Amino acid sequence: MNGLHQRKQHRLSGYDYRHPGYYFITICTKHKEHTLGNIPVGADVLIGPQVALSKTGRVVHDVILTMPSVEHYVIMPNHVHLILHLPETEDGPMRTSAPTVPMLVRYLKRSVTVACGSPVWQDDYYDHIIRGEADYLRIWEYIDTNPAKWREDCYYTEQPIAPQLHGPVQPDAGGRQRALADVGQE
Fold it and tell me: Is CB count within 10 Å lower at the N or C end of the chain?
């Protein structure tokens, strides 16, 4: 051992992340800082807690909306959860240009970092290969309820609240999220 920190491998050894299917992805902010927004205390009981996005959180939101492979997501104060769908593609020479999980994560991280002008993310990310409908529905529910369970979340930390520049987000009819400030402006 040369004394350097060995990074833990999170990817499933030998698995081809170009394989069509569904993937649950979690990407954390650098040092798990609350740079993406906050969850205001005393939210409407009927609606439940919603994430109020910071300027950086809004950039993340806008980039995600450009990614057709994202089926469902939530932006939390210091991380983002995504369900990615890689569809079946025809075999052939163009297969190499089909999206992969690492390619999509790299696109999101790089786009947000460039737009913000400074690093936003930790180097790594977590993934889970979704195996079947029950797993998919459990993860969808987890994403939906994540803001309400923020204090129990494994990524929760007590930190000063990031500046609130935009309102909470809510899912549109397709399950994707929109800032409440955008509702009705279409």
Answer: N
For residue 79, what is the enclosing H or E element?
A: strand 79-86
Best CA proximity match to 61, nearest among 75, 50, 71, 49: 75
Burial of residue 176 (CB within 10 Å: 0-12, 13-18, 19+) is middle
Burial of 97 (0-12, 13-18, 19+ CB in 10 A): exposed
Share above pLDDT 90 across residues of the chain, in percent, rounded to a whole number:
48
Instruction: For residue 19, report the phi and psi dihedrals to the nearest 5 degrees.
Output: -60, 130
**Contact at 8 Å (CB) between 28 and 155?**
yes
- Looking at the domain that runs over 21-148, which CATH code has it been given? 3.30.70.1290
Going from the C-alpha of 17 to that of each of 55, 148, 174, the distances in angstroms are 31, 31, 25
- Tens digit of pLDDT for each residue in 150-184? 777 777 777 655 444 444 554 454 555 544 333 33
How many residues in total does the chain contain? 186
Residue-range domain boundaries for the chain: 21-148
